[in-house]
Amino acid sequence: MWKTATEADIAHVAAAIGDPTRTKVLRALADGGVLPASALAAEAGVSISTISGHLTKLREAKLLTVEHDGRHRFYRLASTDVARALEELARIARPLPVTSLREDVRNQALLRARLCYDHLAGRLGVVLLAALVEGGVLATAANGYRITPAALGRLGEFGIDVEEFSRRRPAIRYCVDWGERRHHLAGALGAAIATRLFALDWLRRGRARRVVQLTDAGRTGLHETFGVPLDWDTPQAAPR
């Protein structure tokens, strides 16, 4: 019997994301990490018994996966596509009202530099992509960006094996950053660069979930290696 393709059931996924508690769960996992139900309940501000039903709905919608470690369960986003969808939704959604100085500080930190699943986002992610294009590591293409021949040596010197990181997933993808309204680098290369920055201690995780901070060595290193402006975190430094 022939089966014909049908339209995607967007309503089912949208309903799963649409609940505020489930949105908080997805945001808590948007840095690509794994968390137990107890931590997700704390992030969402609900009880363990309440979070259980929300986690079930998110798994049924294929937005979360669960990993078992003995008797313990840990949850993570089902794929990078889920993180990208959250980024796109954040770009078109109305901002939530800021109710405290603590929230404002955290929001500014997220806008400055954060993880979008496994790659850099925020102003730092945007200016890094722009620097890679300006420096000839990437070139614009019809479908986004491509790695240039000159990039192989540059990335190799930085400690990234181009052939290795691109074996299991597309090398180049991009997201439209919800804060900057411009592209930041995703895909295997985006993940490889973020991983390398952490390994060099050029990048560190911040106190708030998803927030990352560039160290002084990282600021200098990214400038010397890829031409990222030293004053990237001031509004006028972002290329237009």
TrEMBL record:
GO terms for molecular function: DNA binding. InterPro entries: ArsR-like_HTH, HTH_ArsR_DNA-bd_dom, HTH_Metal-responsive_Reg, WH-like_DNA-bd_sf, WH_DNA-bd_sf. Keywords: DNA-binding. It comes from the Bacteria. This is DNA-binding transcriptional ArsR family regulator. It holds the Pfam family HTH_20. Residues 2-97 form the HTH arsR-type domain. Coiled coil: none annotated.
